[in-house]
TrEMBL record:
Catalytic activity from the UniProt record: orotidine 5'-phosphate + H(+) = UMP + CO2
Source organism of the structure: Endozoicomonas lisbonensis
Protein name (record): Orotidine 5'-phosphate decarboxylase
Transmembrane segments: none
Keywords for the protein's UniProt record, in alphabetical order: Decarboxylase, Lyase, Pyrimidine biosynthesis
Amino acid sequence: MRFLDQVRAAVRKNNSLVCVGLDPLPEKFPAHIQELDQSVFEFNKYIIDATHDLVCAYKPQAAHYHARGAEDQLLMTIEYIKDNYPDIPVILDSKRGDIGSTADQYAKEAFERYGADAVTINPYMGIDTVEPFTRYEDKGTILLCRTSNPGAGAIQNLKIGDQFLYEVIAETAMKDWNSNNNIMLVVGATNPDELKRIREITGDMTFLVPGLGAQGGDVEATVKSGLNSAGEGIIVNSSRGIIYAGNDENFAEAARAAAIELRDQVNQYR
Ligand SMILES: O=c1ccn([C@@H]2O[C@H](COP(=O)(O)O)[C@@H](O)[C@H]2O)c(=O)[nH]1
């Protein structure tokens, strides 16, 4: 099934636009998990088991695995989701971007080595660096457009003629690069005005929207600015706000409660 169809099916099955980010920081794990051999995978397993019926996607962030040599546990995590909850797509957040021959390898890494359903990439180097990803027609390619971090505006809101850079990216992605209809955009929840503008530019395109929870984005403004004409079109990510909602032996229940709260807040404004 194509990534966008997977997302749509999961949104409808679980009545949820929430994506749980799997950003493991072992020092934040409860003590009894820290002691385990494969603590990253074990932690993720608890979080996934506790939230699988509340989400439309999972998003492991690659640096959190690479930084501690835990690539094997990233793979185990993705395989665990696929084996146990095959209806829930996995977005590998690795923000890759390089010349075509290297991008070929990054695409192979994301889609063939890890078996991700979608990957985040940096569009800064142009179409020849994006095509190695979009060539995988059933997979999703999610381009950074207007990111959630405080410094983003200094670059992404630069004027190019009469447009902002993020508007150029959104328009180019939609009009010129999306011939396989598998491109999506990352648009931060911390900037609802830009989110609204990007929605105007791109019609019903799907966005990955990080920035709620730990980064303080406003749920109401995000949902009202981001929804498409079907009342969908946003994959709302929260990582730390959900997976570190508790830090004792009840951490998985705390994550579940946080995911329910976010799902319900989002649905309130749909
Ligand atoms: O613009 C962006 C793009 C990606 N991210 C990633 O999303 C999560 C957010 O984590 P929280 O704990 O919910 O803040 C993290 O993996 C980022 O690398 C982003 O925040 N903003």
